[in-house]
Design brief:
Elements: E1 2-5, E2 9-10, H1 21-33, H2 35-40, E3 43-46, E4 52-56, H3 58-66, E5 71-77, H4 82-92, H5 101-107, H6 110-115, H7 135-146, H8 159-174, H9 179-191
Helix pairs in contact: 1-3
């Protein structure tokens, strides 16, 4: 890792990532308030074209420019092919893993989480919860509301079956078929053989 002058760096042309205003403001605040963390996650550079192109960290670069920083932490990956650059660009922006929302809700402060950039659920302040006071009436109203609501189940496919599955689902959806019932009928018939 080394610090490089911002004016020596070039943004990735046609960067597939964007950032919205509120998220950009949060990113700027994070860089300003946590310079050690910014240093621990340097901008990743490639010199394949003869210029120092940012292949990971373009939004942090924009935030650093906005904050009028003169230098930023960088790490140069040498001798990359264009294909390897593309792989790194995508891998850098994929979030592997999922949040355990129960642990977050029970062990973490929601205000801190929100300040750090995590979208957390908050109950709106203007909601009238008085309907919940009458349990029998609430159950009846919930049953009425659930009557027309469809539910979903995720089905995994092996990579070599995925395209066929997507095509057949599209085919039946275009014909307004109720795919869930079709699957249920088929699987029930198979089970009952």
């Amino acid at each position: 890792m080394k610090y490089t002058k911002i004016k020596e760096l070039k943004k990735l042309p046609n960067n597939p990532r964007t950032i919205k205003n509120l998220d950009f403001e949060k990113l700027c605040a994070s860089i300003q308030n946590n310079p050690d963390y910014f240093e621990a996650r340097p901008l990743i550079l490639s010199d394949r074209t003869g210029e120092l192109i940012i292949i990971a960290g373009n939004q942090r670069y924009e935030a650093a420019q906005h904050l009028k920083l003169k230098e930023v932490p960088t790490y140069l990956l040498k001798d990359l092919t264009e294909e390897r650059e593309k792989e790194i660009i995508i891998r850098d922006n994929i979030s592997n893993g999922e949040w355990d929302w129960d642990k977050l809700a029970n062990d973490w402060d929601s205000v801190d989480l929100k300040d750090w950039g995590l979208d957390v659920w908050q109950a709106p302040e203007d909601v009238d919860y008085s309907i919940l006071d009458d349990e029998d009436e609430t159950d009846s109203q919930l049953e009425d509301m659930a009557g027309g609501v469809k539910k979903a189940i995720q089905i995994e496919f092996e990579p070599d079956h995925y395209e066929d599955a997507a095509a057949i689902v599209k085919y039946w959806r275009e014909r307004d078929a109720y795919i869930g019932k079709m699957i249920l009928d088929f699987l029930t018939a198979e089970r009952d053989k």
